[in-house]
Structure formats: C-alpha cells, structure tokens
Amino acid sequence: MFKIMLGLGKKFPAFKKQAVVSIEKGKEFYEITSEDHINAGKWMVMFWWPKDFTFVCPTEIAAFNAKFEDFADRDAILLGASTDSEFVHLAWRNNHDDLRGLQFPMIADTSKSLAEELGILEENEKIAYRVTYIVDPQGEIRWVAANDLSVGRNVEEVLRVLDALQTDELCPCNWKKGEETLAV
C-alpha cells in the first residue's frame, strides 16, 4: 500500500543504519543514527537516490560532495541514502572515480524501513525517489523536495533553502544569502 510522503513540520523518523564512510580497509562502515545531528546541535541534509551503479545518481552524489564544505560551514550534517546495501555502496565507491573521495556517509536502508516510513518508495520497484530533506537541530522537517527518478536535483538550491531557513526570517522569491530579508 502506498504511503504519503512525510512532510513539513513532522518529526524526522528515528533510525539506526549502517553507512559507508570510507574505502580504507577496516574503516569502511559506521552506524549512523537519527540522533547524531540532534546531539551535535546541527542541521541535517539527507538526500536519497534510487539505485547505485546508475547514471544520474553519481552526478548528484558528486555535486553534493563538491559542496560538502559549504554544508559543514552552515552547521549541517550531510547524509546520502538509498535502499542498496552498504556492500553495494562500498563496491560502487571503489569502482567509480567520482565517488572514491566522498566526505559524507552513504546510508544503507537495506530493509527499506526508513524510506517506507518517509513515504518515498516508488510503488513498483520499491526504490527511493530522489528526495531531499532539510531537518533542523530539533529533528523537525523544515524542507522536502522530490524529483522524478529521471531528473537530478540542484545542490545550489538546497544550499539556498538551508541559508534561508537558518535566517529564521521571511525570505522572498529567489532570495540568496547576503540579501535583505523581508521585514514584518
């Protein structure tokens, strides 16, 4: 049965998942939890892709990686996720030039439990849609964007929205960091 996508104002679901954090032998895997960003007092940006070893997905993952420091500068933990296993993630990282030097974890939602709870599973193949969440330090979903399986997302837009949310002010259309916000 199809579940509605979890959206704005909702608590991001609790999770504990294995993730690939390195390609160095013996240091590949680490357990990531939903409490990590809350305990650190940071924002969380989690983006999902449908499948490893595909064509659009590595372009997005590489684009997020290229902006890793920009997310870190904004006190945001960056997490990537799919329903593939940690072993598939590791094999992909080892075999794809653009993924070897990733600076953020690749979460393995092999049970599909988190994707299902978020309501982001494609109905037929049971793979995750291209969905991006921005979650505040208290664990509340503040922004969610979903793309069709065939369309990559814009990392600059994710950063722009994160900047806007962090102002805690009213930000007009096309607002960018450094511009004036709206006075009420």
List the helices and strands and how they pair.
Layout (H helix, E strand, L loop, with lengths): L15 E5 L8 E5 L1 H6 L2 E6 L8 H10 L1 H6 L2 E7 L3 H10 L10 E3 L4 H6 L11 E6 L5 E7 L7 H13 L17
Parallel strand pairs: 3-4, 4-5
Antiparallel strand pairs: 1-2, 1-5, 3-6, 6-7
What would you say this structure looks like, in words?
With 184 residues, this protein is an alpha/beta fold. Helix content is 28%, strand content 21%. Strand 6 (130-135) and strand 7 (141-147) form a beta hairpin. The protein has helices at 35-40, 57-66, 68-73, 86-95, 113-118, 155-167; strands at residues 16-20, 29-33, 43-48, 76-82, 106-108, 130-135, 141-147. It has a seven-stranded mixed β-sheet. It is globular, with a radius of gyration of 16 Å.
What structural keywords apply?
184 residues; 7-stranded mixed sheet; 6 helices; 7 strands; 21% strand; globular
For the secondary structure, the number of strands is: 7
Largest sheet: 7 strands, mixed
Oligomer: single chain
Give the uncertain stretches in residue-range form: none
Shape verdict: globular
How big is the Rg? Answer: 16 Å
Number of helices: 6
**Helical/strand content category:** alpha/beta
Q: List the helices and strands in order.
A: EEHEHHEHEHEEH
- Termini separation (Å)? 44 Å
Beta fraction: 15-25%
The average pLDDT score comes to: 94
Can you list the strand order of the major beta sheet?
Answer: 2-1-5-4-3-6-7
Kindly state the percentage of residues in helix: 25-40%
